[in-house]
Every structure is written in structure tokens, then in C-alpha cells.
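mind reviewing both lines:
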Amino acid sequence: MKKYLSVTPAVMRSINRTAILEHIRDNGKSSRVVIAKDLNLSLPSVVRIIEELENEKLVRYSGDYEDSGGRKRPLIEFNTEENITLGLDLGGTKVYACVIDLSGKTLYEKYVPVHNTKSDESYELVVSLIEEMLAFAKPLNKTIRGISLGVPGVTSHRKGEVVFAPSLEWVNMPLKNMLETRFQMPVIVENDVNMAALGEMWYGHGRNRSNVALIAMGTGLGAGLIVDGCIYRGANEAAGELGYLILEKEELNQSYPLFGPLEYAIAGTGLALQAKEMQKELTEGDESEEYTAKSVFEAYERKEEWAVTIISNFVDKLSMAIIAACAVIDPEVVILSGGVMNSAQFMID
């Protein structure tokens, strides 16, 4: 049944508050009059919300003034220095953690190139990294606004639940509640590629664009889709799970309990598995050598025939995925990211 949504005064105020914060973030410094004019809001409404944000120490008066020829207007800016957040990008094999201020400036970072954890061990890794970041952040005497986690899989962002993250063996995991109970601060849990797409729209290659497709190839494969400036999630918050895209008739009527068919073709795990299978055939069953996406591309650069076959198929399948994304959401830009893109020089042309 179709649901008709109404906008209550509280919701409208929240929308206006967000719009004002975004205006200040985008413009650096701005006056209340300019904000009201640009956002088509009444000046009294803007003044009330600015006062509220100032009391929360999210914005402040910069000490500068706009000279409009008459009365000088005080300029408001984002209070980046007094506010920090903790962020984690949790991959199937890698993890990155950082403390940043509200301008996006990194104050502390920790990179774990290989974590080799699953299930409960992955959760304990997250906890230990948060504790490490808090040990750095608390002595700064700044307001810690909360913790955000990007997770490689399907998430329910409203519940903060990880529905399915096969590379971590997490299923229906109430991660938000677990971490908020432990650390007593707000936690946001979101699909990692959705977060990456937002980051590109705010600060990166998607800046000043409202329709963006970010395709990330790491351990797995996923896409963050921005439509009209908002994350497109789908009915089950599984939009952008490109790994399950079927491009061959033979892939129909098959079961894909973990990774999808396209992930086996172009994600890092899939490239390594293909190399292992091909080398097993070439060496008559010898499986002693371990392969990674990086080593496959290195073999391709040496023009080893088996690697040329794998990478040629990779380029074809990736091209089809890009075309599919463009056909569905008509983005202004397609951004390729993830660990596999460290070998971008072999495929971009």
C-alpha cells in the first residue's frame, strides 16, 4: 500500500536546520540575511536556528563582517575546531580508522592492511580501534559528536543493523545498539560504499553534482548511488549491490549464498580465485602459490597468457557494470574506487 507522508513542523525545522548547516559548510562564511535569501527562508526562522546551532557549538560568529553598503552583517562559520568525529571504514580484508574535525581534516588515523578477522573477532577489532581513537580524542577537550562505521554489506541505516556482510560473517547484527551501549555516544552504521559516495559528493570527484555512481572494487563489489543529492537505498536498502548483477545466461538458476556472480568476475576475491583455478589447471593440481588481485595485474603486465585472459574478461564485465549503472540512474559522473583500482593504469584506457 502506498504511504502518503506529511511533514510536521518538527520535521520541517530539522530539514531547515540541515539546509542551513550545509549552506555554511559549502560557503565557508555567510551572513544570516544571505542564508535566508539563498534558502528562501524567513529571516526570523534563520536567526532562531542559528542561535540554536551556536548554543550547540556547531557554528560560531567568525569575527568578520559582510559590508553590504549599509549595516555590516556578522558572518557565521562552521565551528570545525571544537567538534570532532570518529570514523571507521571496515573492509573484508582492510580497515581504516580516523579522528577528523568537521572540515574533514584528519587529526589521527590508523590503517590495518590485513586484519584476518571474522564474526566476533571483527567486532572486537572495531571496539579496539574505537578505544584507540578515543584515547587520542578525549585529551583534546573537543566535543566528540559520535562514531560512524562503513560496513561492507547490506545495512539497515535506521536501525543501525548489519543485515548481511558476508566477508565479515555478520548477519542481522545490531551493531549500532551494541556500540552505543558500550561507548555511550551516537553511532551511525551505513553501507561503506554509500558513505564513500557521500564523501565524493561533499569533498571529492562528485562535488557540486547531484547524481553520482561510485563503483567500489575491493574484497567485494558494490555501488553507492546518489540520486538528486540523496543516497538511493531501495526497498530493502540493498540498492547498488552490483556483485549480484547477472551478465551471462549460465549464471541464472544458480545459488549465490556469499558473493555474487559479478564479484567472482571483477572483485579482488574473484580475481584471486580465478588465478588459483587457472594455475591449478596449468600446474596439474599444484595450489601452493597464493594470488591476490595485485599479483594478477602484475602477471598481466608481464603479458602472462592466463592473466591476460582474466583481465580482459575483467575489463569487459566492469564495462558492462558501468553501462548498467548509467542506464538505470543516468549519473553525471561514475567514480571507480576500492583496492582493485590501485591497478587502474591497466584498465582505464
Q: What stands out?
A: Residues 305-329 form the longest helix (25 residues). The two ends are 47 Å apart (CA to CA).
